[in-house]
Design a protein that fits this description.
The structure is a single chain. It is built from two helices and 32 strands. It is an all-beta fold and 460 residues long. The protein has a seven-stranded antiparallel β-sheet with strand order 20-21-22-23-24-25-26, with no helix packed on it. Strands 2, 27, 28, 29, 30 and 31 form a six-stranded antiparallel β-sheet that branches. The protein is globular and about 55 Å long. The structure holds fe (ii) ion. Fe (ii) ion binds next to strand 20.
Amino acid sequence: MVTTAVNPYLDRNFAPIHQEITTDKLPVIGELPFELTGMFVRNGPNPQWTPIGQYHWFDGDGMLHGVQISDGVATYRNRYVQTTGWKKEREAGKAIWSGFLEPPQMDNPHGGYKNTANTALIWHAGQMLALNEGGKPHAVKLPELDTIGEYTYNGKLVSAFTAHPKVDPVTGEMIFFGYSPFMPPYLQYSVVSAQGELLRTVPIDLPMGVMMHDFAITENYTIFMDLPLTFNPARAQRGESVMMFESDRSSRFGIVPRHGDNSNIRWFESPACYVFHTLNAYEEGDEVVLIACRMSSTTVLSFADSQPDPDANIPRLHRWRFNLSTGTVYEEMLDDVASEFPRVNENLLGRQTRYGYSNKMANSPLPLFEGIIKYDFSSGQSQTHKFGEGRYGGEAVFAPRRGATAEDDGWLITFVHDEGSDTSELVVVNAQDVTAEPVARVIIPQRVPYGFHGAWVAGE
Ligand SMILES: [Fe+2]
């Protein structure tokens, strides 16, 4: 909720920028490794115009910030994702759509909410897609970051598209889902072949519409999270938020064979919680194991609970064990430190990893990240890379060293903003030595606003 005169998500380094630039041969403090060739791209909200009504961080138009790295030299570009809504508002010279904190515009012929394409990116079958869970993906050209347009898999896409699809590193398949807040089917589940063909979409039954931001895969299964952050349009008529966390409902985790459907999904129940992001999942004996950042409740995107939970909105790394033979669930906290945007070496996605990376939240009412935590799940220990006083980063993405054989042989890459100098850098940290200074700090020629998810695309 907005409580200050200036919305904090339109202020300081959450404020949008409006120049789209390309700059090569960026200054580097330290040295960019020669075995690091590719492009880091990060998505995030960047409202083109002054918002209508209450502005939420999730509302801004998508803007991509990319750093291409080759032979130790870096080039920066930033571009809006030119969605239909972005173009309509460009023509109008002002905002047309309001955001999530306002009622949907049911009379807008282009949809009640704008598909901002602002959340995340996925590289699959030679195509980069900019994603927002409310609508269709947008294809983006690399390295230019120019928007090609909506991507529908030759018209086969019949659902919305999660911002967090999973690419199986062995089969090359991409697994995704789309959820529907108000109308059944509330969940549709799809598999795309390694070649980029949408193979199948099946409905999965849910009791009602829920906000389902992420999911997980293992070698053989897909895990859905039916958590009690529910949609109910009737609440709007009572002056309440359409979306609300219902603490008296259970969390349900559905485990379905990758090529299965609603007939063979198995549901496991555990106490109410919310999860924005999973780190990974894997199979171990009779168990399917899920690691994710769990909050005991959330007021994100809804009005505050009448009985506030002191742990609300604090994400902490947890592990669930779902036993497929006994039907039991075992849930445990792995760390009481608040962290979010967890990632692994994605060459091991769906398989047990020794390491995981998450981002340490600063002690702030705003989502600021003060460092990167490297978890060693075999020892139960962790190490933290700190960005330094007054410096905050975002999601750190793991980029493997070319030809690497060790799981953690590579770098953690994120944009960091220095609040004192109001400048931004791309920070490259050796994943095998996270407490050391970054191996490289690439000076970005303009401010990079805090944002959401990134992707590393290896190669020229
Ligand atoms: Fe996300």
